[in-house]
Specification:
Blueprint lengths: L8 E6 L2 E6 L5 E4 L2 H15 L8 H6 L20
Antiparallel strand pairs: 1-2, 2-3
Length: about 80
């Protein structure tokens, strides 16, 4: 879905990190190098567009998430976004 904005990527450097932002979607990512920032942006855009693989139960556990009790909910109810 297009927002009517000409697609472009901006690259800025802040405090030793490169920040890449897709102006059409507003998705951004960062990396220690320009190449890392752009690679990370590609991955973030894949997620934004619904591409990519869901994490495995093992990957969830490594992130501290119990896959047996993993439920989506409102961001407003999440303690992470207070």
């Amino acid at each position: 879905m297009s927002t009517g904005v000409d697609p472009a990527i901006t690259l800025t450097k802040d405090d030793g990190w490169w920040i890449a932002k897709d102006t059409e979607t507003g998705v951004s990512s960062q990396g220690r190098t320009r190449a890392q920032a752009l690679d990370n942006l590609d991955e973030a855009l894949d997620g934004y567009h619904g591409d990519g693989d869901e994490p495995t139960d093992e990957e969830l556990r490594e992130m501290g998430i119990d896959p047996e009790n993993n439920q989506s909910g409102s961001l407003d109810e999440s303690p992470l976004f207070d």
